[in-house]
Amino acid sequence: MTSSQARAVATALGLAAMLAGCNERKDPGFQGWVEADMIFVSPDESGRVTKLNVREGDEVKPGAPLYTVDDDLQQADLNQNNATLANAQQSYDRAASLSKTGSGTQATLDSAVSALRVAEARVNTSQTRLARRSGFAPIAGTIQQIYFREGEMVAAQRPVVSIMPPGNMKLRFFVPETELPKLAIGDEVKVTCDNCAADLTAKIYFIATTAEYTPPVIYSLDERNKLVYLIQARPSRPDSLRVGQPISVFFNARTPVADKR
């Protein structure tokens, strides 16, 4: 072999090695993103937000005060029902006294007892409505978003704030049918993202049983026009990720059960 031929062979081998390296580097993994199951805290009845106790990004513990909604109507309703309860109590005391002396009838006493119980129930309802004008954190987490500020009207059952518990963060990614035999519930996968730690992992807890077309959020042109299956996994370090962040997922292929047999 001449020296020129040797150089040609060496050049060809070098190009082949470079192409192989490029192919390895171009492996994008399975594309997905970070999501979270938020906890939404809302008032039972409409009203105007009078006070906000938190800001976006704050860490809260269970029972921490979040907001207060005006309670004028609820307070007035409680005052009215307290007055009704006082009258019902007087009627009951009079009927009970007359019943002991034999001057009153049993029917009158029964009616007074019934009216007293109804009045007590209405007071309890009013107290509950009044107490629920203030929102408290039902779980520990981070204030993700504030939807209504002080002075704004909020409709009934519309969230004022949302809380993101760390354990509710999840990764969503899609894989083609040919890759499903390599995955199982409980498998650990590697997770990468821009400027993230190199040791991020997640554990699969959900594998869809039905196929769907590629999701609307596409990060790779190669993934278009394919039927894929949704996979969801819980990250081992949720504090290292952010909601909406694009991620890539990698896993080691396992030998399918059919091949083992």
Descriptive notes:
Residues 8-13, 19-25 and 253-261 have low confidence and may be disordered. This protein has a six-stranded antiparallel beta barrel with strand order 1-10-14-12-11-15. Strands 2-9-7-4 form a four-stranded antiparallel beta sheet, with no helix packed on it. A four-stranded antiparallel beta sheet has the order 6-5-3-8, with no helix packed on it. It has four helices and 15 strands. It is α+β, with helices and mostly antiparallel strands. The two termini are 50 Å apart. Strand 11 (188-192) and strand 12 form a beta hairpin.
Helix and strand arrangement:
Blueprint: H1 3-26, E1 30-36, E2 39-41, E3 47-52, E4 59-60, E5 65-69, H2 72-101, H3 106-131, E6 134-136, E7 141-146, E8 153-154, E9 161-164, E10 169-176, E11 188-192, E12 201-207, E13 212-213, E14 227-235, E15 246-250, H4 257-260
Antiparallel strand pairs: 1-10, 1-15, 2-9, 3-5, 3-8, 4-7, 5-6, 7-9, 10-14, 11-12, 11-15, 12-14, 13-14
Return the structural class.
alpha+beta
**Unreliable sequence segments:** 8-13, 19-25, 253-261
- The share of residues in extended strands comes to 25-35%
Q: In angstroms, what separates the terminal alpha carbons?
A: 50 Å
Strand order, main sheet: write it out: 1-10-14-12-11-15
Q: Specify the biggest β-sheet.
A: 6 strands, antiparallel, barrel
Mean pLDDT: 83
Rg result:
33 Å
Total count of strands: 15
The helix-strand sequence is HEEEEEHHEEEEEEEEEEH
Shape label: elongated
- The number of helical runs is 4
Residues in helix, %: 25-40%
Short description:
Helices cover 32% and strands 28% of the residues. With 261 residues, it is an alpha+beta fold.
